[in-house]
Amino acid sequence: MSLTSAYQHKLAEKLTILNDRGQGVLIRMYNIKKTCSDPKSKPPFLLEKSMEPSLKYINKKFPNIDVRNSTQHLGPVHREKAEIIRFLTNYYQSFVDVMEFRDHVYELLNTIDACQCHFDINLNFDFTRSYLDLIVTYTSVILLLSRIEDRRILIGMYNCAHEMLHGHGDPSFARLGQMVLEYDHPLKKLTEEFGPHTKAVSGALLSLHFLFVRRNQGAEQWRSAQLLSLISNPPAMINPANSDTMACEYLSVEVMERWIIIGFLLCHGCLNSNSQCQKLWKLCLQGSLYITLIREDVLQVHKVTEDLFSSLKGYGKRVADIKESKEHVIANSGQFHCQRRQFLRMAVKELETVLADEPGLLGPKALFAFMALSFIRDEVTWLVRHTENVTKTKTPEDYADSSIAELLFLLEEIRSLVRRHIKVIQQYHLQYLARFDALVLSDIIQNLSVCPEEESIIMSSFVSTLSSLNLKQVDNGEKFEFSGLRLDWFRLQAYTSVAKAPLHLHENPDLAKVMNLIVFHSRMLDSVEKLLVETSDLSTFCFHLRIFEKMFAMALEEPTMLRYAIAFPLICAHFVHCTHEMCPEEYPHLKNHGLHHCNSFLEELAKQTSNCVLEICAEQRNLSEQLLPKHCATTISKAKNKKTVKQRQTPRKGEPERDKPGAESHRKNRSIVTKAIVWLAGYNATTQEIVRPSELLAGVKAYIGFIQSLAQFLGADASRVIRNALLQQTQPLDSCGEQTITTLYTNWYLESLLRQASSGTIIFSPAMQAFISLPREGEQNFSAEEFSDISEMRALAELLGPYGMKFLSENLMWHVTSQIVELKKLVVENMDILVQIRSNFSKPDLMASLLPQLTGAENVLKRMTIIGVILSFRAMAQEGLREVFSSHCPFLMGPIECLKEFVTPDTDIKVTLSIFELASAAGVGCDIDPALVAAIANLKADTSSPEEEYKVACLLLIFLAVSLPLLATDPSSFYSIEKDGYNNNIHCLTKAIIQVSAALFTLYNKNIETHLKEFLVVASVSLLQLGQETDKLKTRNRESISLLMRLMVEESSFLTLDMLESCFPYVLLRNAYREVSRAFHLNRVPASTH
C-alpha cells in the first residue's frame, strides 16, 4: 500500500474516534445488561404475565419472526406497540451501534493489515496502545452483548412493534439478528474472525514482553532496586527522572493483562508456533484469576481460556499450561500482591514525605508521583476484583487487607500534592520543553537521512511550538493546549509504521524516544488532571460498594488505620470519572451513589469522633459528680464508725462500693503502654517473624513523641509513664507477667539467627561486621544482615538497655556453658590418649598412631565453633551497647575506660573481674569476659577435684589443637577475602578458644599466656605435619586453615606475632595468603565472565 493511501486512511484519527466510540457502546451494553437484570428497572412489559407467550414465541423464532401470520402469539405486542417502541428505541439503537461499531472495527483492522503496520509499545506507544485498546474494547462489547439474556427479546419485540406500526420491519434488523445469532458463542466466532490479524496482534503483544516482566517484579526486587526512592541516591536527587518510554512507566499492569489475555485468546494460533508468545502468555496467566471487562463485569481467565482451548485440536499442552498457571495463581498471587502492597505503603509514604517537604522536586521527579499512583491503583483494583469474585478459598487472608486505608490515603495525598504544586510542575517542564527538548528534536530532524514533506512539516511545527514557550505564560496563568501536538505525533507514528513508509520509526528510535519525552512534558503543562485520572482513578469502587464499605469498616476497627479513614469519602469523588457522553442517563445515578457514600462515610467518621468526645465528657461529668457534698456523708460515717466497733454497720445489700474522688488518677497498671510496645515488635511465634530492632526503635520513638505531644494538652506526667513503660521492657517480664521485647528478641536471636548460624546457613562476616545469610532455599525466611549489622545492634541496645543486654548475655552464656559441659565429657572420654599426645606431640611417628584413636574430634570442633558464633554475636551486641552508652553517658564512659586501663596482669583477680564487670556492663570489651567466668563458675561441679578440672581444661586445648587439620577436608573451610571468614564459621573458633581459655584459667588461677602458648605450639606442629600429607582430600584447604593461626594472634591480647613466628614460620602464612587470594580471584573470573 502506498504512502499516500496511508495518509488518506487516517489511521490515527480512526483509532482515536473508534476507541472513544467503543467505550460508549460498551457502557451502553453494560447499562442494558444491568437494567434488564434488575426487576425494578426492567421494562415493565417484560414482567407482565399477559406478555409471556409473546416473549417466548419471539425468543424461539428469532430472528425469523412472521409478524403478519402470528397475530395469535403477538396480540399483546400489537396492543402495546406504541409503548414498546417508546421504551425500546434506545435499547434497539444501542444494539445497532454495536453492529456499526463492529463494521468499522473490522474495516480498520483490515486496513491496518493491508498497510502491514509495525507495532512496538516502546516506539509508537500511542499507535500500539490504541490498536490493542480497540481489540480489547471490541471483544468486551461482544462478550457483554452475549451476556444480556434478553437481547433476542428486546431486538425481536422492537422489530415486531416497528412492523406493526409502520408496515415494515426496521432496515437494520436482518443484519442485527444475524449478528446476535453468530455471537451466541462469542469467543468461538471472535477467534475465527481474528485469525487473519494474528501477525499484527502478536507483534504488538510481543513488544510488551520486557515491560510486562519488569512491571511484574515482586516486592523484594522492588526493594532491592529502591523503587520510588528519592533519597537512595542523594547526588541524583534533582536529576530529571527520564525514561525512553515515559508513558510505559505508569502504564497500568491491569491494562496490559487485558491486552495479553484477550489478544492471545483471539489469536491463539501463535501460542503453538512462537515460543516467545507462549512465555508471555504463561507469565500473564500467573498474575490474576480475573480480569475486568467493564466495571464489575469480569472474565474468569483460566476457566474461559481452558474451555475454549479444550475444544480445539492440538492444544493439550496449552490446557496443561493453563491448569498449572491457575494453581500457581491460587498458591502465590495473594502473598505476592500482599507483599507489594506492604512495600508500597513504606515507599510511597517516604516519597510523599520528601515531596511534601521539598515540593520543588515535583519538577524533576513528577514521573515518580504518577508511577506511585499507578502502582497503588493496580494493587487496589487487583484486590477489589479478587475479593469480589473469589468466594471459596483456603486462604481468605490473601484477599483481605486491614491496612488498605493507608494505601488509599497515600494515593490521595500524592494527588493533592500534584494539584497543589501544579505551577512548580508547569514551570519546570515548560523550561525543559523550550530549552532542551526543542533543541534535541531539531538536531534529530536535521540528522534524518530521509524525511518526506508531510512528516517534515509536522516535525518542524513541533520545534516551532516548543521554541515559542516562555515562563511568563505560567506566571500569567495562561492555559496551555498541546492536544494538537500530541495528535500530530500520533499521526506521525501511523505514517512511519506502515511497511512502505520512506521514514521508518523503528529505524529511528531516537526520534521516538525524544517525542515520547516531549509528550509527557507537554502533558505536565496542559493535562495533569487527565493524567491523574488515568493513573489513579478508583471509580471501580462505585461498582464494588460492598467491598468499599467493608474496607471502610475494617479501617474503623483498626486503631492504626483510623487516621487514614478520610480517604474513603475522598475516593467517592472519583465516581464521576466513569461516565460517558453516550450514556447520559447514568450520570444522576452515579452522582447519587457518590454523594450518598461520601455523606455516609463522613457521618460515620463524625459519629466516631462525637462518641469519643462524649465519652470523655461523660467521664469528666462522673468525676465532677463524685465531688458533690452529698457523697461525703458516707465517708464521714465510715470514719466515725471506725472509732466504735459496736456501732460499726455492715453495708446494705446492693449498695455499690464507691471509690474516693481522685482514685481514677492512681495508675492501676501500665499494661496498655507496655503491651503497645510489645505489639510494635510484631513477633509471630508460629513463623518466627519479628520487626527489625531499628524499625521497632523508630516506632517507639514515634509512640513516645505522640504521648509527649498529647501530654501538652492533658497535663499528664508523660515522662514518668514513658520511663516506667520502657524500663519494664528491659526486664524479662513486665508488671503483668507478660513477655517483654527483651524476652522476645533474646529468644528470637537465639532460636532463629544463632541456631541457623550454628547449622551453617548463616555466617558471621568480620568484614561486614554482620551475620549474613547464605543463598540456600527453604532454610530461613529472613535476611540475617538486616537484623545483625552495626545499626541493628545499636538499636537493640537502645531498646533493651543495660538490663536487657545483661539478660541477653546471660542467656547466651547459658548456651555457651552447655557446650562446654559436652566438651568436657569428650575430653574425659579421650583422657588417656590426650595425655600421651600432650607429652609426645613433637614425635610424628607416635602421633600417627595416637591421633586415629581420638573419638569425637569433629564434634569438638563443631561445638567450639558454636561457642565462637555465640561469642561473636555477643561481641557485636556489646559494641552496640558501648556506642549507645557513650552517646547517652559520655561523662561515665571516660572514667570506666580509664579505670580499665589501670588493670595489669599483677592486679588481684577479684579486683580485675570487678572492674571488667563494670566495663562489660557499659559494653567495653575485656581480655577476660567476666560473664563467661561467672557462667562457668556456676556450673555444678561433679566429684572431680579442682586439679582434675584444670587438667581437663588443658587437655581441651590439646584436643582442639590436634583436631585443627581435620578442618582442611571440609569444602566450606575456604577462607573468603570478601567476607574475611569461612562459610562454615570456623573463624569464630579463634574467639571461642581465646575467651574460653581466659575464663577457665582465670577460674583455676593459672597463667593464661602460658597455656595459650602451649596451644599455639601444638597447633603449629599439627598444621606443619599436614604439609607432609599426600592425600589431596585431607589437604584440600590447608592454606586456608593455616590462616587460623594468624587470626588467633589477632584475636588475643595474650599472644604476639613473635610467639607465632617461633613455632609457625611467617613465610608459610604469607604463602597461604597469596594462595588463598589467587584461588579466590580465579573462582570469581568465570562468574564475572558469565
UniProtKB/TrEMBL annotation:
The record's Gene Ontology biological-process terms are:
cell migration; cell projection assembly; cortical actin cytoskeleton organization; neuron projection morphogenesis
What organism is listed for this UniProt entry? Rhinopithecus roxellana (Golden snub-nosed monkey)
Q: Where is this chain compositionally biased, Basic and acidic residues type?
A: 652-666
UniProt lists compositionally biased (Basic residues) regions at: 639-651
Q: Where in this protein does the record put region Disordered?
A: 639-669
Q: What is this protein called?
A: NCK associated protein 1 like
InterPro entries from the UniProt entry: Nck-associated_protein-1 (IPR019137)
**A Pfam match:** Nckap1
Gene of origin? NCKAP1L
Q: Name one GO cellular component term.
A: SCAR complex
* Transmembrane region(s): none
